[in-house]
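Blackboard transcription, Thursday session:
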Amino acid sequence: MPELPEVETIRIGLAKLLPDREIADVWHDWQKSFPNAPADVARFMIGAKIKLVRRRAKVLIIELSSEYSLVIHLKMTGQLVLRGKQSFGAGHPTKSLVGELPDKSTRVILDFTDGSKLFFNDQRKFGWMRLLPSVEVPLIDFMQKVGPEPLEDDFTVDRFIERLARRKNSPIKAVLLDQTVLAGVGNIYADESLWAAKIHPSTPVSKVSKPKLVTLYSALRDILKLSIEKGGSTDRNFVDAKGKEGSYLNFAQVFRKAGQPCPRCGTEIVKIRVAGRGTHICPRCQRAPK
DNA sequence: CACTTGACCTGTCCGC
DNA sequence: TGCGGACAGGTCAAGT
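(Written on the board underneath:)
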């Protein structure tokens, strides 16, 4: 569920909150969430300060003063929430999806010397954290294979079309979700952008007209940007670095709207299955390929 | 090689 | 009220 806008929302929050905090201790309880804890933790985390927080695709990178970095993938249900009076003054959110922390989904806790704590929660345990030398981050398999950032200035419509053409016989939705083609798009933004461009998600890329691909390019970028402005989509349990929900789904047109009228033509939105994913379409605006 | 399906997990919801 | 089963969907490994 955390897709590009959700991970970016967390990054913006952490980039404001974390720098210069010094790690005092690290706790973890799920080995798969943090496979190189605790061996490397004492040497490269305790006593280190947070330098900066970056994002690439759906991955967060927290750089430490020890020249090691935490690389974090939240997968579907991961959360990164900072708590502590130092960070929020008197009134941090009391009612929200996240209550008292730690809770039963807490997998890792970073304790800082000022008393604040960063909680890595992950109900379904798909997420992970890795500690590795900062210089090695760009060399890991994921970074080598991941496609371009769709919101970068140099990501042009021609580049977009050229990337999609790498898998021209696949359903276009599957291609949008392919992280080696394009970074950061997941189920929500694939459905929303395909609806905006009036493209049926099962259409092979080679069968989609050039004008529709151009529309898809603009729609996808606009939707990703709007979602970042709205703090991302809270479908089930996404929250930002302060534990707050995002509001983009109030602006969504088709995602999770089966049975409701298409905002464009009034036809009932239906849920189908494409590329093994639940997929929301307007059957009139997005006609199936022959 | 291109493409699809299954596994990894847990919480929630639906029907009986 | 309890219980089995489907479902949620990011990514990688395994299968066709």
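Lecturer's comment: Helices of chain A lie at 4-17, 41-44, 85-88, 141-145, 157-164, 172-177, 187-196, 210-229.
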